[in-house]
Amino acid sequence: ILGAWDESNEKDRALIELASDMSFDNWVAPIREQSLLDSGFCSFSRGVWRVRNRSELVAMFSANITPGILDKLKPLLIEALTAPDAKYDLQPKQRYMSSVFKRGPVFSEALRVGIAEYLAMWGTGIISLPKCSTRYVDNYIYGLIYPVICADDWRILASASSFITFLSEASPEKFLILVGRALDEGEALVRFLKEKSEGIFTHNYGAELFLGIRYAHKTISVLDFCRRHVGVYSSPLASSNRCKHYGSNSSRSKAG
After folding, report:
1. Which end of the chain is more exposed for a tag (fewer CB within 10 A), N or C?
2. What is the mean pLDDT of the chain?
3. What's the whole-model pTM score?
């Protein structure tokens, strides 16, 4: 479910311990052992673990994932996704030097992106959860997207730039609804779009958000077309379009 974590990050370790009811060392020990036996299981570099062939592993264990497990994880996942990066406490001209000021993310980016990627795997139909109803999954995804998009702190939105497109893929329709709600009811999103980092180059925030909006709008348009002309919601055309986009990290980076 996490997909990746940084074993040198204390908050990553603490979250895993709370989620697993085990000490981090005991939890990671069999993963280290399996990685030695199978190099394709996980990658490890500079303290960061990443699960390889994730969709295959998730499919293998999806029958073991129950609403009870997900309900226990939910507050932990929300905490990770909504933790603001301390660099946004700095002035715009200081943010590119955040490491000098020892200001950075609370949880690792690897962990946060891994969580959002898992939600996207649900939304694009790459994996299914046989013990969870469709309504449960939809509500669960909404419950994790809402506190990010409708946050009352612009720093949460800025800190989500690395994974916000995955949230769009998880539930395009809900993503657009929440963006509209955030614009209508709060000031955080507007403030976020006005913020920037200044250095050798000026970086305006929001490109990833607009990429997510573009994907969500395109996907909903395809589904609307299918409903009108094919008469089904989850058509092969829609599934193909969404899954193809999900796997296209390079195209996402270029568009951003």
Report:
1. C
2. 86
3. 0.83
